[in-house]
Amino acid sequence: MAGDAWIAAADVIPMFPTLVWKIQLKAEMNKAINPMILVALARMRREAPQLALGHGWQSPQRLHELEEFSDLVSCIDKAARSVLRFLRITYDAVEISGCWATVLTQGAAHKAHHHPNNFLSGVYYVRVAPGADSINFHDPRNQTGIIRPPVAELTAENTDQVVVRVKEGTLLMFPSYLQHSVDANASDEERISISFNIMFSAF
Predict the structure, then answer these.
(1) The pLDDT value given to residue 164
(2) pTM of this prediction?
(3) Distance from C-alpha of 128 to C-alpha of 187, rounded to nearest angstrom
C-alpha cells in the first residue's frame, strides 16, 4: 500500500483540556481599581524595609476583606461564576478562600507551584512592565516528563510549558492544580500582582 491508501478515516480527539481564562478589564475599571490597591499596599509596607534587588514581598492572605479591594473582589466573583457556567458546574456558591499581593523587584522570580485544596486560582495584574509581563503554565500531566524526546519544532501539542503575556488590568483564572511560575523580573520596576483562590462555599 502506497502513501495513505490504507486509511479510511482519521481524526485527532482532544481529551481532558486544561483551560486558562484571560480577561482584560475595561480601562476605566482598571484605572479605578489599581490606585486603591497601590495605596493599600503602600500602607502595609510602610514599616517594612525597602526590598533589595532579587527579592520579593507577599502580603497577608486576607486582602479580599479590605474595602480597597471590594471592586476587584466583585470582578473576581463575576469571573468565577462565569467559569462555573462554562464548565456546567452545578454548585453556584463560591467564595474567595485567600487573596494576597506579590511584589517582585528586578531579578526576583517565583518558582513553579500550584494551590492545593482549592478549585480555581487566579491573578490580577496591577503593575507590569516589559520584561515582567508574563506567567508560565506547566504541563499538569506528570507522566509526560518521563520521556522527553527532541522535537523539530515546539508546538502546542508537544510543549511542556505555555507562556501567557499579560498587562495591567489583566485577570487570569485557572484550575488550582495547574502549576505555574514567574520568570525573573527583567524590568527596573516592581512587578505587582494580586493572587487569589476560589473554593465552593459548602465544602
Answers:
(1) 98
(2) 0.93
(3) 9
